[in-house]
## 1
Amino acid sequence: MFFEDYRQEILEGVSDGVWLLSTKRPFLSISENFWLKLGENYPNQEVTIEDFKQHVFEEDLPVLNSLLDQGVNYTEMNSEIIRFVHKTGKWVWFEIKVKQLRNDRKNDRAFICFDISASKERERIYLEFDQMNRTGGWLVDLATSKIFWTPSMYLVHGMDPQETTPSIGDAINFYKEGESRERIKQLFGEAVEKGISFDAEFEFVDSLGRVKWVKSRGKPVMKNGACVKVYGTLQDITEEKRKAREVAEESKRQFEEIFNSTYQFCGILDSDGTILNVNNQALEFGDVQLSEVVGKKFWEALWWQNSKKNKSRLKKSVKTAVGGETVRYNTTIWDGNRQEVAIDFSLKSMSTSDNSSPLLIAEGRVIQDMIDIQRDLETLVKSVSKHNETLRNFAYIVSHNLRSHASNISLLAGILKDSVGEPLEQNVQSMLEQASERLADTIGHVNDVVIINTEGEASTERINLKKVADEAVSTVSAISDAVEADIRLNISPKIHVLGTYAYLESALLNVITNSIKYRSDNRDCLIQIAAKKKKDRVILTLEDNGLGIDMKKHEKNLFGMYKTFHGNTDARGIGLFITKNQVESMGGNISAESQVNKGTKFTIELVSA
Amino acid sequence: MKTNLILVDDDPIFQFGMQHLVKGLAMQVNLKVFSSGVELLEFLSAADPDEIPDVILLDLNMPVMNGWEVLDRLKDIELGKKVAIYVCSSSINPSDIRKAKEINIVSEYIIKPLNLEELDELLDEAK
């Protein structure tokens, strides 16, 4: 029996171990290679069944027991999987095939063992991966309507892997009723009917009633143009969704915080200028509620109702900003009390995540304080430069006019000294008197100007312009009647100005007498006096048809001290200088236009009251 | 040979003073007085060669045509001989002095009043 002699060796060669069980005896005959698999030495003898069971992982003992049960009859090669414990303590997986031996001892059996630890280990790792990903795998065989689930599938469903795999209909009912369930039905249907793969996220309720988010992927297997199977994965993405939502909520919270805590006014607009959001600062400033402005066009909101020009400029700016250009300008808007407030306004586009038409960010920063300061500063600069001009005039008066009289006095005094004892030249004394009088006059003029500049503003009152003009005209009537001057007064009695009565009268008198003094011999003297209101100013004009002044030559000196222009010996060049000082001390302004031999027009701007 | 001196000044007191000073000079001086620049220019345009002045004393602050304008006109007039032009003003304003010194035809800026010695020296220099 050649084959019989080598039977054991052959068996050991094709398997990882063989056991033999004889019906009559409670012993097992174990091949050497099996023991090696367990890391044990070959005992070189049969072992008792009880001893052998020591090497089996206790959970699998029932399987071993049934294999060894003599009552069970194996007619075909059956196989079971049993875990044995290696000498080092780890499992060794065996697939064990049972063979009923065909000999006279009817119940003798051979067990042929195959070490499947490597593939079991891989399976275990895959399962761990699946559990780590919270991902299960599934397969639906359309021919049999049978469903196969991987163990992780059960975990995603909150089920025990020992439970029965549900039917297709039951499996679909785990998807949350409504949108999610309708969608998975549709996608699964399309996979079956049209062979289209799917990959989508759904809301899901597991068997324990926990609401989850799942990512479900499916892929059809086609055969001869028809779908025969669909397989796919189901991933529990609840945690990821929760984290993403938390991140989104946190960044939204941070945005709201910044949006509402900035000192700037801030708003978000649609590309057509519709208000989407406005921060608290802007709402409080305009004393409006968010609900009142959201959905409105930006330019229809309260802030921009102060002027039509403002609205149309904003409309244009929205278009420019949508085109990608940043718009920025200073403007005024209304606050809740409909008071105009100056702001630094800007509008820029903001790209959106879905690349649709851009949103606009509108920003505003109140700069009223800055503007007020700037205005005060400008007023101050104006006033300082006026004072500076007065000072320069004074310097000129002192260096020139006062000195000229003083030098004359000293000249005459020298002559007197030289001529002591000699007959005195008759007019030296009168010249000396004249020079000292002029010196006194000039000092008087300087004093007048100092008073006007220092006390003018203190004594302002509300003056009826017509009344003071009437009085000035009647004061000059003696000279105007003498030369038959025609003075036409056209001032509404309603016009009032802020100023000093005496200065206003003096200014009018001075200009009117100038017009009479410098009338033309070629025509009747005509003086027209008129006034009109312009915002918070009153524009008073005095126009004559006299000699006129060469403005090219004299414009610079017209209102200067001791400037004369016509060669009249009685001209002293003080009138217009005083007039200018008086008008300016009332917060006004005086200017002149003139053409030689046509006439002169003085324009006096005053503060309306 | 008499020295021709012209004074252009609208101030009658200074005119008088100058006439008085000239009388006290040792040299022979022929003084002409004009109250305005216009008069001076009219005179120069019609003057005989022996009437052309050796020295002009020119005031600055005068009505209608001031000293500066007169100087501006004088630049363009050919007088046929060297004429010493002195700006003679009571102004001690530095800008006036600076401006006068920048004009080529001006010999000197003289601050009023003027005494006999100064006038004598000035006429001497001009010779």
## 2
Amino acid sequence: MVKVVHHIKGRKYLYEHYRVGDKVKCDYIGPVGDRSYATKSTFAPHVSPHKIETELVFQKQLAPTFDLTKLRDMLEKVEELELENVDMIAGELEFVLPAVSAVKRVAVERAEYRDLDFEIPLADFPGQIGEVELGATKANGGTRKNVIKVGGEKTMPFYHFEARNPHKPVIAYDVFDTKINLAGPVRKHFEDVLEDPAEWAKRCVKKYDADMVTIHLISTDPAIKGTSAREAAKTVEDILQAVKVPIIIGGSGNPDKDPEVLEKAAEVAEGERCIINSASMNLDYKRVAKACLDHGHVVLSWTQLDINDQKTLNKHLLELGIKREDMIMDPTTAALGYGLEYSFSIMERIRLAALKGDKDLQMPISSGTTNAWGAREAWMKTPEWGDREKRGPLWEAVTALTLCLAGSDLFMMMNPTAVQLFEDTVESLCGFREVEPLDVKDWIGMR
Amino acid sequence: MVKKIGPLDIYNYLPKTNCGECGEKTCMAFASQLIERAVKLEDCPTLMKPNFAGMYRHLEEMLAPSVKEVVIGVGDSAIKIGGEEVIFRHELTYFNQTAIALDVHDEMKDDELLERVKYVNDFRFKRIGEDLTLDLIAIRSTSNDPERFAQCVSKVSDEAKKPLVLCSWSPSVLEAGLQIVGDQRPLIYAATKDTWEEVGRLAVKYSCPVAAFADDDMAELKSVANALGSMGIEDIVLDPGSHVEGKYFSNTLGNFVASRRAAILNKDVGYPLLGIPATVWLSEEGVETAFKEVMIAATMIDKYADLIILHTPEIWALLPIITLRQNVYTDPRKPVAVDAGLRRFGDPDENSPVLMTTNFALTYYTVASDLESAGIDCYLLVIDTDGLGVQSSVAGGQLDAFKAKEAIKKSGIEDKLKHRKIIIPGFSARISGDLEMQSGWEVLVGPRDSSSIGEFIEKKWS
């Protein structure tokens, strides 16, 4: 008979194994030291996970040449083994039995406070996100007043215990080249400049201190105004004149028209290191990529909530000669309440894969956070939902913050209150905001 | 690092009869489902027989989640927190959503106090077929007077339909509260390095869950939790201290992340986490502070808090918080898309309107619930857009005139109608011209948001 005592999470379970004829019989005796389970029950041997181990022991009895290393591996999970009526002739058999947690043992015995150590499991990521420079100053052939850097991460956002990521997330304000329908809480900040993109951009920079501005050339879509690529390029020139921050140039989303529009825009903005928004699977991304290569811009690789598509498109762009430090990707932002969790998880997966070493995904991530305003909870005047002037900006800010925590680096946003709120939170999380520490225990006594 | 349990580890302890009584074809399939927590051990009738009691107990322990599941309250309103198994939701799913408590204190005026309790009781917001609610009431003892606290607890518990959190640093104040509601399983907040023994004794005496607190010191927090554990207490919640001011907020986030990583990767102090966005009100007040509280709550929901205590009751502040919670705790294993095809709403006839939408589950359910609440008899043509919403699929080419035309033909709708007129989503306006040309149907561009679909049909459909 072989008695096997298993320790599982601090409890002991006793099994007895017999040999009956050429079969192994296994009896479960019950937890050791627990009288309530002392009744003996019989199992068919096949139900027991210990069968393997038992058989090994029997085989060992029968065949002395049995591979002891294998036996040891099999018994690795067994913390204590009592063998009876078994001859073991093995000088080199060693049992590596994990130590039962000392803490647990003490635990049941008596109440006491002991100073314990806490160890943070560190991830030790081998990969690093590429660092991308946005905008070019005079020294580098552009006319921007400053250069902004994104990327360079070595760990997930704000995990300072692991590593300090080098750059703060960046926010770009949206500007459109034609008057569009905007949600009330956004419109009120730009009401008087909606028909003048250059003034609109100035408002963002001068009044709201924008890091960057995005000019969306939506009027080029034949379904909107059909503005020509040449005219659209003029708008880009106006923006570059009006503001001196790095800019992003966006098309209309019309796959037939965009390559031409972005090409012309890239040409007139030569040397400014703009982000060209975007190269995607559903248009001629080779033309967009070439325009970026020819005129020194950063390409935005845009896919729709699909990590494999993102990887494929990035790979294609890399093959066309775009360098990793000249690329940013946008896996699509779904609004809070309308699929934000998809964007959140895709970005987390992308960033984790990149940190683990997937070179095709080691680019900074961009989020079209403005999509938050598509959510009815953001813009709708519904008294029972509370003031939309507060609700709306929070909707955009929470969308941004959530994707920031998932790994996004660059945020295209619209509402100044949302931007301010998001920026303040990010500054705190970056560890930049110096304040006096509070005694948090005081929270109970707050009146 | 502790090795993750796989289906094979579980399978070894199952009956291996492949009897199919659990609904799965094989015991191995049942084992995989157990790991995904899609089924329960109790679903296996064989395992429930007395001679399998030992195996059952083994399995129960093997399958115990890395983060202990803790129940606060009793009966229908009881709240489960923790029970988590993964660090990132895409690795499996998060299980018990972050519970949300609103605070009151024992020096509040009676009417104010009861109004707040009633507010928590009645708070309900319906989103995509789910009722979003507030879950608990946290009673703070600002008076630090046991008698006063007991009175307040008594008043609150008479009205409250939700579980309570009793908050004081003084064991005698906590005990005064427990004498009133000790049988209701409130969460006792909190035991510290100095008070663990007295507070722990209360938790044992009243069989209540208890929070361990240490101020930005994970080793101390672990030690307090361990000391409580040494008294035989299993239902512990961890408060690593909610510093939300300036740069200290990053320490708090770091502690939350470290705690969850340790629980899951090292099976170390695997207890649910408590975050207190309400601490933001320590240093300031006003609308700006409520804004900040929302951002803090959002950070904590995104990163591992199992319970949060809020101060602001403003609906515009709570709405984004509960919506975010619903998003983050959506099971990622659920399909993104619904089946494409033609759906009927109400009792449509040959003159009824036909509408079009995409098969992204969220879009579909939003439109469906708007049609239902408007009480419109109509057809809804659901187009296969690879599970993308309207804006995305128009932008990405998954929804275009050709595809819409094909869907119309394939649906057989033309046999059911006298008219040839379809309402398409406002965000797909771009395809309207092409669709008219290709299909020969008259195309009406509907609202961008389906909430006003009732009004639209009333005005534009004749």
